[in-house]
What does this fold into?
Amino acid sequence: MLKLVLPKGSLERSTMDLFEAADLSVRRDSSVSYKADVDDPRIESVRILRPQEIPTYVADGLFDLGITGRDWVEETGSEVTSLGELKYSKATTNPITVVVAVPGDSEYRSVSDLPAGVRVSTEYPELTRRFFADKGVDADIRLSYGATEAKVPDIVDCVVDITETGSALRAAGLRVIDVILVSYTELVANPASFADPEKRHAMEQVLTLLRGVLEARGKVLVKLNVAAEALDAVIGVLPAMKTPTVNELYGAAGYAVETVVPKNEINILIPALKDAGATDIIELPLSKIVH
It folds into this structure.
C-alpha cells in the first residue's frame, strides 16, 4: 500500500533501530543496498536514499511516506504533509540546529551586523539566501560539499552549518551568532496520498508504532506491593507519568502499585520505595508506550 523512503547516511542506523523496535524491521540484502522491504501489509516497498532528496521525491509522488529532516524540507521548499516530529537524531534525542557561525574573535554579534558581500559557505544555499535576505544582508553564498566549518576564515567569512551538540563548531574555533532553524526528524507524506483515507489510516498506524517506541525510551515500568498503612508514603515517592495504578490485593492483604518512571532515576527510586515500605519491587523494560 505505502511506498516508503528512509534516510541514508547519518540517520540511517538510528532509523533502522527505530523501525526494528517498532516491529517494522527493515530487511535488505546488504547494509549498502538501496532497496529493502518490511514484512507488514501496510508497506508495499522501501527505498533508502539521501535525506536531502527525500522531501522532493515525496512531494513529487514517487513515494507516499518518508523520513527526513525539517531542514531539508525547508531547503528544498517541498510541498509535503508533515505527520509530526520523530524526536531522534544521529546521536541524541536533540534536534539539529541550522546556525550562522563566525570566528570566535569576530566583532559580529548577529547576521544583521555582517557587511554587504560577506562570504558564506553552506550546504543550505536556499535556506541561507532567504534568511540573509530577510535580515537585509547582501551575501555571497557559496555551496559547500562538506567540512564547512574548516573554511573560515581563509576561504569564507562565516558559515551556515548544522550542530547537534555544538562540539564541532567549538573545536573549529567558531561562535554562533544566529539560529536559522531548529530541525527535528519528521515523518512526511505526499499530500495526495495523505488525502486517500485508506493510505492516511495506514500512515497514522505506522506513526503510532514509531512514536510508541520513542515515548518508551528511557523509561521503565515499576511494580510493587505495599501494606495499606504504607500506601500514601510509597505513592509520595513515585515520580509517576500520571496517577499510579493501584489495585487491592486478594484478601485485603495490601495493594499492588505500578507506574512508569524515568530509567535514570531508578537507582535512587528503588531504595527509597523500600524505605517507604514497598515490597516485591519489580523493574521491567518497556518497548512501547501508546497514549
Q: What stands out?
A: The CA atoms of residues 134 and 237 lie 51 Å apart. The chain has three domains: 2-93+184-216, 96-183, 219-285. The chain has nine helices and 16 strands. Residues 219-285 form a domain with the Alpha-Beta Plaits fold (CATH 3.30.70.120).
